[in-house]
Amino acid sequence: MACRDAYKTMTNNMNSAETLVAAPVVVQKADRLLFGVDSEIQANDVLQNNISEFEWVVRNKIYPNFYGRYLTGENCLTREEINFLHSKGCKIAAIYQDPGEKQTEEQGQILAKKMDVLAFELGIPTGTAIFLELGEEEMATYAFMRGFATTMVEEGYTPGFKVNTDARFAFDREFSRGMQTDGDVFKMCQIWAVSPVVEEYNGITTSHLIHPDNWQPYAPSGITRNQIAVWQYGVNCHPIEDDMGKITTFNLNLVRNEQVVIDKMF
Prior knowledge:
Strand content: 15-25%
Shape: globular
CATH class: Alpha Beta
Number of helices: 6
Structural class: alpha/beta
CATH architecture: Alpha-Beta Barrel
Distance between the termini: 17 Å
Largest sheet: 8 strands, mixed, barrel
CATH topology: TIM Barrel
């Protein structure tokens, strides 16, 4: 297996957590918003116009500060893709999906340990934020989140959730409950909000011309909008076929503060 620190980070990684008394990262007021994308398609996938998906992103938007990629699934992140993105000077946001039940604290602990093993195999350095993606209809209890977050910190990683933060869905209720009962744990979690999608960006083909002027992601109760780390504001943008004839797209994101998120990406 590769060494955890096989890849360079923008700044020194945070030390592996021995306890949960470490001060959580606090979001400072941002002087600028940084652009990034996420996609289920590998960044080095060749398209029918003979350029890579990454080059397609650059052509249609701006050079991304980070590229969100999945650690699981058919087109999951590989060492080859990691090397490709790093050769472009682009950081990587690690996203994890798991279809299992998410009810108990023990289930959260077990999932975090699975993620730790995979992160080790890919050489993801400690201190990196790894975002667990939760679907809108997926029920993850605050006990599960607590077990997940505490174990991720113990393993040396920053816990994150990529979720719909609209109060109509369960995450808002469960995360807010966790903030009330285990605030020290839940304050360590980074939130990647996928709501609201700004309608004019959905499926857009001219994203290089416009971007949101205001930082407007929904925030779960217990934290403020300014404490949201990443906001996915546009989805399924710039569709094009890859070399195998499969339609590919990417999603548009803004990062509020590079000191909070970008230096926790690998």
